[in-house]
Amino acid sequence: MTRRRKRRFWTAAELGRLRAAVTGRRAHQIDWSAVARRLRRTVYAVRQRALQHNLYLINSQCDYGPEFIAFLRAKHTAGWSDPEIAAAWGGQYCAVSRHRRRLGLSSNAYNARHRAKCAATQFKPGQIRGQAARNYKAIGTVVIRTRNESVYYYTDKSGRRRRTVYKGRRWERRRWIKIGDGGRPQDRWIPYAVHVWRQAHGPVPPGHFVVHRDGVTLNDDLGNLMLITHQERIAWQYSIRPRMEARRRAGAARASRQHWADRRAIQAAHVTERARLQALSAAGAAELARRDELDQEVAAC
Question: Which DSSP letter does residue 281 get?
Fold first, then answer.
């Protein structure tokens, strides 16, 4: 069990020394640590006692008279900003800003003096620090990338929500080269095959693609590259990957079977509904005929 510290009450002598140390001064002008050491108390206790007795001037009690107006005009002409003037005077930033606006003076927040002070800490053009410097790749760097993994969610036959991860295939690995540091991130890296083609034949026309003849995306020799359109690219992919064409045909057949099965189900539902409506119509006609007969019997009576 910890022993509670005995409370020390302030004596008249201590209050006199505190009053002599802080009376009439602003809070930022007082060395609270030195005062606390002389009184053998904590800084928090000293500040609280001085605040309770209104011994020092807080920011809201600062003098904003003619002396301050002259000080404000002189510092504003020298290019000082409102926070700097408030710190030098020991007042509040909002009060300094309010008096400056009343005097019709413009703000010095972004003047030449402020920009000169910030230039020492601002990042210079092309300067990289920290994690960005450790991850930086120089222009001309060639790397091998695989298509990013994609996460898909689907519902199985039991109704449970499941998750599957798609990883890039072997032929989707390709080389990329960095061509610049500026602009959009997607414009800084291009496929190495496109870079080789540009070096030999110039820019790639719009609507055309640079592909590998043998389908090996890591073989970036100029003789293995060719320029084709989108339609030619689809036919070329089917020619070098027969399994892709087989999967496409199987998918098309599966979609066709599902389509016609759905149509037959819809037609059967239409026939059933038509028969139900006809039955209701026949029952309604019989009921009307029965009512007519009853009306005739009543009239005959």
Answer: H
Tell me the two tokens of residue 178.
């960095």
Q: Are strands 225-229 and 208-212 parallel, antiparallel or unpaired?
A: antiparallel
Fold of 138-150+160-240: Homing Intron 3 (I-Ppo) Encoded Endonuclease; Chain A (3.90.75)
Question: Which 3 state secondary structure label does DSSP give 169?
Answer: coil
- Side chain identity, residue 133: A
Q: What residues contact 297, with CB distance under 8 A and at least 6 apart?
A: none
Instruction: Calculate the alpha carbon distances from 96 to 24, 60, 69, 114 in Å.
Output: 21, 11, 10, 17
User: What's the rounded Cα separation, in Å, for the pair 64 and 96?
Assistant: 9
Residue 123: helix, strand or coil by DSSP? coil
Q: Which helix (H) or strand (E) holds 177?
A: strand 174-178
Q: How far apart are CA 42 and CA 91, in angstroms?
A: 25
The SS3 of residue 134 is: helix
Which DSSP state fits 53?
T
- For 101-127, write each residue's pLDDT tens digit: 888 888 877 777 766 766 666 666 667
Q: Where are the beta strands (DSSP E) in the chain?
A: 142-145, 150-155, 161-166, 174-178, 189-191, 208-212, 225-229
Least confident among 94-103, 169-178, 191-200, 232-241:
169-178
Q: In 10 A of CB 238, how many CB atoms?
A: 14
